């Protein structure tokens, strides 16, 4: 088995979104796979729209800590992403590993400068007829 780790420059990618929420990574026998330290591994599918293109790619990212707070379609941040080229018994592929996947907070929509009378009653109003 040969393997080569390559760091991924995420600044060259478009927006990353959770395509499929985290699930335990299972081996061929249906058992949860673990890293060298014995931590259970989690797999999350991520989608990225390539900059200046209509192309969307998806890839699975493995983490040792379960990503929390992710929702399908939500924007995510990936910390320390690596690509690992592998070859086992004539099969080849690339797997992706990261330290963490976290949700990107959704910013509140901009509020116009004025407030409506219904949303903020005038001071001193008794709210009813006298």
Any overview of this molecule?
This protein is mainly β. The protein has a single domain, classed as Beta Barrel (OB fold (Dihydrolipoamide Acetyltransferase, E2P)). The chain has no helices and eight strands. The strands form two sheets. Strands 1-6-7-4-3-2 form a six-stranded mixed sheet, with no helix packed on it. Strands 5-8 form a two-stranded antiparallel ribbon.
Q: Can I get a quick summary?
A:
It is built from no helices and 8 strands.
Entry keywords:
single chain; 130 residues; mainly beta; OB fold (Dihydrolipoamide Acetyltransferase, E2P); 6-stranded mixed beta sheet; 8 strands; 0% helix
Question: What is the percent of helical residues?
Answer: under 10%
Class derived from helix and strand content: mainly beta
Adjacency order of strands in the biggest sheet: 1-6-7-4-3-2
Mean pLDDT: 85
Helix and strand succession? Answer: EEEEEEEE
- Summed up, the domain count is 1
Ranges where pLDDT stays below 50 over 5 or more residues in a row are 116-130
Main sheet characteristics: 6 strands, mixed
Please give the CATH architecture. Answer: Beta Barrel
Quaternary form: single chain
Ends apart, CA distance between termini: 86 Å
Number of helices: 0
CATH topology: OB fold (Dihydrolipoamide Acetyltransferase, E2P)
Silhouette: globular
Rg, nearest Å:
23 Å
Strand count:
8
Beta-strand content estimate = 35-45%
CATH class: Mainly Beta
